[in-house]
Amino acid sequence: MHKHFLGLKGAVAGSALVLVSALPAHATFGYFEHGIGVQAEGLAGASIAYPKDTLALASNPASLFKIGNRFDVGADLFAPDRGAEIKGNAVAPDQSYDGSGVSTFLIPQIGYTRVLSDDWAVGIAVYGNGGMNTSYDNNPFARFGATGKAGVNLEQAFISPTVAYKIAEGHSIGVSLNIVYQLFKAEGVGIFTGFSSAPTKLSNRNTDHAWGAGVRVGYLGQWTPDLSVGAFWQSKSYSGAFKKYAGLFAGQGSFDVPSSYGIGASYKLTDALDVALDVQRIDYSGVDAVGNRLSQLFLGNPFGSDAGPGFGWRDVTAVKLGFNYAIAPQWQVRAGWGWGSQPVRHSETFLNTLAPGVVQHHLSAGGTWTSSGGTEVSASLTYAPKTTITGTGSIPPNFGGGEVNVHLSEVVAGLAVGWHL
């Protein structure tokens, strides 16, 4: 057992290196990833009851016994296309803006699992849980007096040490400690300083960071030889505030990670074909910086105050459906479809110029080749088609009225290698 814990200690050290190098995570359901782990991504993220590699701990910590002794390392190349259009504004003519000044991101991931006995297993996963980036070389707020480039950069990386216990044959429970590291930067939004409780801590303050923590618990059970059922609940991850941006986010820079929960099932349709289905809920409204509406400003609550404005996001329900087919002992192929309800209200597109997390559908495909020695090489490709949210009463009258329309599309390509230990 001492040897196993030494291996886990080494994985933790490697995880820290990945954390330092992590770049903004992609986001399909608001700013949460559509799937974590390259094999799960090929299934549109369906992994609560269908773990394929060690990154499945990010969906269900009870997956440890199904995963076994394993190590995975991989990365995604993420290419979002985001932007905005301002129409009918009294200050200046209609104009479109490209928010893709930074066009691609490399996102690493790593995981390690070890079964210690018939009843206990441990593991760790390090991954980007979510993030958002916009970079406007042509500042959409320049018509209102803003200067320089505009945009935000939010990065959320999770380190999730995990332990699982087998409560009965084929049934296990697990718990992860989610250690969260966040980075944030905003620039080019100084037009809001007159509406802030801390005007000098709202824009162009360089990158700030914060640590936080929460928990994730899960269950996974083999109900019949062909049917597996799983569930998870993730608490809100309470984080330290972005003090450099105490005049921007509600609660003097507070930015917790929302809670989420979900259920999943997988079924073996034939000896070669499996189907997996997940339903997930993300409680964005439980984080004031994300859920509060811009109208809070006109109720006497400036930016940065306890009830200050946010992005006005709604909670999201996500459905993920994936199919995995074993062509031969060495080859698997997979595909999936995912859908999420819309977090961005039509009335809230003005601030969401900075955070247009509006895509709802995505299509995924992937495959895995297994060598004679058991090494797995997996690849995935995900496409989220362009979604546009048109504004309705979105620009306040004191900014000249009119509407902001925001859009986003995404392409994600992943590659990973896994070893059975």
Automatic annotation (TrEMBL):
Membrane among keywords: yes
Domain of life: Bacteria
Membrane topology of this protein: Multi-pass membrane protein
Residue ranges of coiled coil: none
A Pfam family reported for this protein in Swiss-Prot or TrEMBL: Toluene_X
GO cellular component labels: cell outer membrane
Keywords: Cell outer membrane, Membrane, Signal, Transmembrane, Transmembrane beta strand
Annotated protein name in UniProt: Long-chain fatty acid transport protein
Source organism of this protein record: Rhizomicrobium palustre
Main subcellular localisation: membrane
Organism placement in taxonomy: Bacteria, Pseudomonadati, Pseudomonadota, Alphaproteobacteria, Micropepsales
Family as reported in the entry's similarity comment: Belongs to the OmpP1/FadL family.
InterPro entries registered for this protein in UniProt: OMPP1/FadL/TodX
Signal peptide, first to last residue: 1-27
GO MF entries: long-chain fatty acid transporting porin activity
Family annotation (PANTHER family): OUTER MEMBRANE PROTEIN NMB0088-RELATED
Protein's cellular compartments: Cell outer membrane
